[in-house]
Specification:
The chain is an alpha+beta fold. The chain is built from 6 helices and 20 strands. The chain has 2 domains: 147 residues, no CATH class; 200 residues, no CATH class. The strands form 3 sheets. Strands 1, 2, 3, 15, 16, 17, 18, 19 and 20 form a 9-stranded mixed beta sheet that branches. Strands 4, 5, 6, 7, 8, 9, 10, 13 and 14 form a 9-stranded antiparallel beta sheet that branches. Strands 11-12 form a two-stranded antiparallel sheet. The protein starts with a helix and ends in a 6-residue tail after the last strand. 35% of the residues are buried.
Amino acid sequence: MKKAISLFVRMKRVIVLMLVLTLLCPAALADTVRENLDAPEHITGEFQSPSGRTHIYVDADVRIPDVACLNTYQVTARTFTLEEAKQGADLHFGPGHYMDANSGTDELILDQQQGENGLVSGCDVLALTEEGLDPLHELTISSEKTMVAGTDYYRANWFEIYHENGGRSDYPGSEDHAREIADAFVAALWPEMAYYGTDPDQSDGLRGRVQGQTGYRFYYARPVDGVFITPVFQEGAYERLLNWEASSFSLPMPYEKLYVDVDAEGIWGLRYDFPIESPILEEENVAVLSFAEIWRIFGVISPMTIMNYEQYAAAVNNALYIDRIELGYMAVQRKDQPARYQLIPVWDFFGKRTIKDETYDQFNNALLTINAIDGTVIDRNYGY
């Protein structure tokens, strides 16, 4: 009788534990997202326009995070702080080996001025060597905040380490060792960011670039509950913001982007654009379309994205070559509140673009983006 009671008590505890896990995450006991979507690990295919002059070739890995559920999140932009600038300067130059351009000392000052489009603030830190100031080696933070639809909007917002590259050389060691240098710097300042990938061509460009003296470029991105906010080559709303004028309408959030350049002398370049606050969970375990449905939408839409070039006689070899398909998060405007933003799951199709004898194969160039929830196509150049 005692054994039966003991067994009954243990069973009750197991049932209670299962209920708790279910309440914490409805998908905690479900299959993985890949299994739920019935998605392959690799896929091939070919599509073309009605005229047959535009081709889409797919030979791609299908990358899906190893998680049980996908969510949506509230997300807001933030500015860089003086503390971040000081930590970065201490790490990069070494304590006492830099000077604030405004204060003339190692005390950093946030200079603020009212610009034409909003409040401009920044901090400019110069390297201090035995020979004196090195004006070609600096660390800066800068932002321009304006009002759009009654809310603060950051027209520009970056953290940059810049060193004139002339005379510097390729990193002679292994990529792994170069990455250790970059990883340590990022982990010290922004532990919420994680290594995402290595750009073999450093295709974003950086001031001071000298051809043949490139080293390595490492990209970092923000994982949110195990899912990356996918970094892309496109700037999103940033290009529109460069020519922005005061208006009553709101703009999409530019993409968070962080990369670090390492060569023989260490970190010589870093750029972190448009950081965000830690996302706040909004809706858990959102329903998403099956991979088969996303694949069908891609087959219909992808030729249409470039077939307008068929009107030109020189538009031969008009094609996209997809080599990677990735499920991740993207920051977009809320449909009901365009001055606020949320993270949603999206599918990005990466690869290269060809036309005539030209090839465009920038690292992480999203050639097509599809909303994983409703299947709508998102233009990465505009952010919605």
